[in-house]
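Bug #77: duplicate submission created two jobs. Keeping one. Sequence:
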Amino acid sequence: MGKEKNLSWSQDLLLCVCIYIFSGSTHFRLFPIFIP
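Kept job's structure:
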């Protein structure tokens, strides 16, 4: 259960990061930096 909760938190954080990138700037080149 602990791992599932951690995974959900990580996924939610990733979503927030994606939204921040889209809202802050439209530089798609930033994606390779965050997601190698």
